[in-house]
Specification:
Blueprint lengths: L6 H7 L7 E5 L5 H8 L5 E6 L2 H13 L6 E5 L12 E7 L1 H9 L10 E6 L3 H11 L4 E3 L7 H5 L5 H19 L4 H19 L1
Parallel strand pairs: 1-2, 1-4, 2-3, 4-5, 5-6
Helix pairs in contact: 1-2, 4-5, 7-8
């Protein structure tokens, strides 16, 4: 049975380390955690949402895919009511204001024990400034979906379509920057060439 995971969430999964205990904050349908468990990436998943209906949907989906016993579910505003026994926290699909509110309420996340994967939908520069100012030890703000080594190794059935969508977007970006901002043009052209070389290897 295919897990209906979006490209956005698949990109986030590519940054989770094997064996991580993952907290998926704002889990919605729960597919990110389900994917991580079904593919042997995460060892356990905490799934939380501020709304009851999405959380119940996540519970049903986890049961359908046979991973409910390895997930725990919390109705929580951000991370307030979650246990702290995890290695990696994923926040995907939120705006910067919401993410900053979640982080402000949990200053203990600054510990080097934790890693954050933040896929921000709006005001990304503001989020980056906040993270820098707060001194987070290791933070990944994932907004541009490039193909990571972990993602290449995943063997996901979604990877070919995801790869093509990334390449298509990069080609358009490079074409649009031609004759304009030289630094950005070289940056995106190098990424495009690297990914194209991977296809040929």
């Amino acid at each position: 049975m295919k897990i209906p995971l979006s490209n956005r969430l698949l990109a986030c999964c590519g940054y989770v380390k094997p064996g991580d205990r993952v907290a998926d904050v704002g889990c919605d349908h729960g597919y990110l955690g389900i994917y991580l468990l079904k593919n042997g990436i995460a060892s356990a998943v905490i799934a939380s949402d501020v709304r009851e209906m999405p959380l119940q949907s996540a519970i049903r989906n986890a049961e359908k895919f046979g991973v409910k016993e390895r997930m725990s579910f919390y109705l929580s505003d951000g991370i307030r009511d979650l246990p702290r026994e995890f290695d990696c926290m994923v926040c995907a699909g939120m705006g910067a204001d919401t993410m900053i509110s979640i982080l402000d309420a949990a200053p203990w996340l600054k510990s080097e024990r934790y890693r954050l994967i933040l896929q921000c939908q709006s005001k990304r520069p503001e989020l980056r400034r906040y993270l820098y100012g707060q001194g987070y030890a290791e933070t990944l703000t994932e907004g541009e979906y490039y193909i990571t080594p972990a993602l290449r190794r995943s063997g996901s059935e979604l990877l070919p379509a995801f790869r093509e969508s990334v390449l298509s977007g990069l080609r358009k970006t490079v074409a649009g920057l031609s004759g304009g901002d030289e630094e950005k043009y070289r940056h995106y052209k190098a990424i495009l060439e690297e990914l194209t070389d991977d296809d040929c290897s």
